[in-house]
Amino acid sequence: MKEKYIYHYFGILLLAALAMVSCENRKIPVSSNPEEVIAVPSTVIVEAENFTQSAKPVDMLISDSGNVYIIANSDGWIAVNVNIPLAGRYQTQIRLSSESADGVTCWVEDYYDNKNDRTYNITGDLSIPKPSPAFSTLSKDGSPLNAGLHKMKIHFNNPVTIDWVKFLLIKNHEHSPQTMTQSTAGSRWNVVWSDEFNGDVVDTSKWTYDIGNWGWGNGENQYYTEARTENARIENGNLIIEARRNDMGQEWTSARLTTRGKVSFLYGKIEFRAKVPAYKGNWSAGWTLGDEYVDELSWPNCGEIDILESVGYEMDDETGNGIAHASAHSGAYYFKLGNQPTGVIEVKNMNNEFHTYTVEWTPDEIKAYVDDILYFTYDDTSTDLSWPFSKPQNIILNLAMGGGWGGYYGIEESVDSQKMIIDYVRVSELR
Questions:
Q1: pLDDT computed for residue 308 by the predictor
Q2: pLDDT at 7 over 80
Q3: Which of 47, 242, 296, 309 is flagged as catalytic?
Q4: Could you confirm whether 230 is annotated as catalytic?
Q5: Residues 95 and 211 in one domain
Q6: How many of the other CB atoms lie within 10 Å of CB of 340?
Q7: Longest CA–CA separation in the chain, Å
């Protein structure tokens, strides 16, 4: 690309004036106001020159064709304002180039102005591994974004030239239209909702698929697919969630099923009968997440109850003996504060034998069991921050690969497939 002009940036006023330059082959105009984002119903594009601040001084380049780019000569970030019109899961794209000998890795941070000093990484790493003077468009799927203004940062670890960042809606957010509130007074548990997985296909009247490879807040490696039998299917009366290596052009694929958009639950007994895989790198989970969750800013105030969590590196690969975890996340207690309330219990033969993982959730406490053995109780109802569990939750089943916990010791290289097998999911109330 032939360079026409290069400007060194020290103030936003210069950028605001130059931002009026139109972009070639672009249907969406550049805003002359760096605080404004031009949006269409399902697509938002932010030109790099409309950034509001940067970690270090950057340059602006205007090509012969009139395209405008931001050039960062070192590592750092630029901040942009993004106005998302519809809540949902988005594909995040960044168009950039880098002549750095080591290429460049970048990622997008959402809500950098949040009051809790949290870092919300909504893309995971997006990388060009070697020098690339030509522009490339890097993307990740599934970034959760609520409607409204998002103050974001594009982070990069080496010199880079950035054209734009774009957000394409791929799935609308749906709150659950129905909430089932279970009675907690009585002497006998009675099933009021279940999936016994006795059909031929996953019942989409009960389950929604979460999709994407944005890292899921934990730097996970898998791409969650939608309605793909290689990753989620019914076999012999069981739900099989299978993670597959080097599949669909992805490092790993897997599945994550949720009742969000179908039904949420308030109180009751929730139980899974399941087998979980051995070998380091996997992270199996059966859990609940508050129906108020829309994007990462929602968590942990929306509440989360982990009914079954298992990581492969804690399991003996020969015997299948491992550890089950149960926990309750809230605004007052969660792992990033270092005070997450958690219970652990040793379980024999977790990968070849079915075990039943259960919580009993009442207005006063949450109790967790494995095979009817109580091993965790949470009962801090003192504040809304410590007890968000008076509001509905959705059930989630997933098998992740890698991430901050599951991948702590890496992923077993000899394994190309991992399976989580669920016999049933049941919700009961007392009568």
A1: 96
A2: no
A3: 309
A4: no
A5: no
A6: 17
A7: 79
The answer to whether 392 and 242 have CB atoms below 8 angstroms apart is no
Query: How confident is the model over 42-101, as pLDDT tens digits?
Result: 899 999 999 999 999 999 999 888 999 999 999 999 999 999 999 999 999 999 999 999
Cα–Cα distances (Å) from 2 to 15, 20, 99, 101, 133, in that order, read 21, 21, 15, 21, 12
Q: What is the CATH number of the domain that holds 398?
A: 2.60.120.200
User: Both 292 and 376 in a single domain?
Assistant: yes
pLDDT digits (tens, 9 = 90+) for 326-355: 999 999 999 888 899 999 999 999 999 999
- Which range marks the domain in which residue 25 is found? 3-170
Angle at 123 between CA 119 and CA 125, to 5 degrees: 95
Cut 0.85: pTM above it: yes
Query: Cα–Cα distance between 90 and 69 in angstroms, integer?
Result: 24
Q: Which of 304, 314, 360, 429 is catalytic?
A: 304
Q: Does residue 344 sit in the same domain as residue 423? A: yes
Active site residue 309: yes
- Any idea what DSSP says for residue 195? E
Number of domains in the chain: 2
Rounded CA gap, 379 and 424, in Å?
A: 27
Percent of the chain as helix, strand, coil, to the nearest 5? 5, 50, 45
- The per-residue DSSP string of 318-369 comes to TT--EEEEEEEE-SSS-GGGT---EEEEEESSTTTS-EEEEEEE-SS-EEEE
Question: Residue 369 CB: number of other CB atoms within 10 A?
Answer: 21
Here the tokens at position 291 are 């129906």
